[in-house]
Amino acid sequence: MAWIRWLLVFLFVVFGVQLLVDQTGGVQSCPEGKISKNGVCQYCEGLCPKTCPGFGHEDFEYQHQIHRGNIDRFQGCTVINGSLVIDMTTSDGDPFLGIIGVKLSDLEVFKTVREVIGYVSITHAFGQQTDLSFLENLEIIHGRDLWQENALTITGTYLRSLGMVSLRKIMRGNVFVQQNPNMCYLTDGMFDDILENRTTQTVLLEDNRSPESCRNEGAMCHEQCTSVGCWGPGNTLCMECRNYKVENQCIEQCNTGNGQYLISEAEKKCGLCSAECLGACRGPGADQCLTCRHVKDGPFCRERCPVTKYQDQNSICQECHVNCNFEGESGGCYGPENTVGDKGCKSCPGIIVDRNETVVRCAEKGTGCPDRYFIVEHPTLQLSNTTVCQACHEECASCSDKHLDNCTDCLNYRQDGVCVSQCLDDTFPDVNRNCQKCHEECTDGCHGASPSDCHGCKSYKVLTKDPLKGNTTVCVSECPPDKPRIFEGNLCLSNYTDGELDEEPTGCAGDECKTNGSPAKFTRFHVDGILMIMMTLVWCLLH
Questions:
Q1: 118 pLDDT above the threshold of 80
Q2: Mapped to the 3 state alphabet, what secondary structure does 129-145 carry?
Q3: Which CATH number do you get for residue 445?
Q4: I want to staple 121 with a disulfide (CB 3.0 to 4.6 A). Which of 153, 208, 316, 363 is the partner?
């Protein structure tokens, strides 16, 4: 922004081009809704100042009052550079001159006017009009131009009150209020503090409704007004308050227990509590209530909780779960839980349901469906911008449907194309976790496809020495020629001594090792035992 200002200074010095600084750069005039302050366009606080020509200005050289043809030129004006004239032609028009009158409601255009540089004259217009509330924001009449020495003239109307509640100064000229048969609420001293110079400026209030008639009808200033007077009926139109004042109302005392608080005892000034306070408060803010009317959100009283929070049983706003959706009509929550329903979110970007389509929880935002879930069209959760994720079968690592035969990957093993928790007894899992058949000579399962991987042998087994595995058992359908002997039912041996495999068998030879299809039971251990028994018997006989 600083370099733009230096550029504008350069353009003014070199070329005589004077521009204003705005957000978009240099401009010759500020856009609508902004005003120039120190060469910079800034947003107006409230209504932007706007000066419009009035009667007596060269733009109204041949026009003398408000009518249909010129009233729109005062739209949005805050200062009238000239005078404001409303008369019978304003309301009734003039067919001879081709002037069309305006409706009473059209005068609302003047509610934005704060200052009139010339005079204000209202005469013989609008019989149904009861006050000048369309000038309720007029603060200053400068009186640089006067009508018969008057800055404010009101005559020949059916007004009941003036209603010019904001009028604070008449810088020059007199006040003339005459021949208004319905006019009440007038006092001799009501303009004393408004006139700039009371010795040179005069006030004439005559031939209006009599004070006695006004009093009989009750058309008098409110009891909370002082003797200075008022602009009309009620405690909001007092020129001064007898006791306390809150906003624009005169009151007997501050109602500190019911919507008001004391600002200053010295100034007799009260303030209104926030509309969200129930009863008393410490100040004007929604965070200064002693009790909330609706809900409490942190230190603030609010009409309702923000969309990211829910109202608990104590009317306190509590945080929704972070996985709730906070956009659109379905945004927000009913409770703190990470689910959809009475105790959780109104909706979620992603919803997790089980295989029975029951809602389990809301998915984490921006993550899509988690592992072992698939996207589904839920029959009752057809919410916009919501993805519904349903659980796969318990044996699926991924799937396209909730059924077992629609697994695209298995969590454990795959048996004949179907996911299972473990392979069948006569099968084993390969490196891809597919269940494969054991060797035909295996029983009680296996851990590989080789006959040496069996957990038990269906026919016979052969003990071998593997360089890597050491002693290994291999299942065979019959004993090989080099190991014809059968030991303990199905072990094929060439010989067996002291638990070791030997080249030369002991204790039996050839067919002697077989007995009715069973292996011979006499080994070296048996012979030693028999000898010990015989030696024991001999010792007993000798002694």
A1: yes
A2: CCCCHHHCCCCEECCCC
A3: 2.10.220
A4: 153
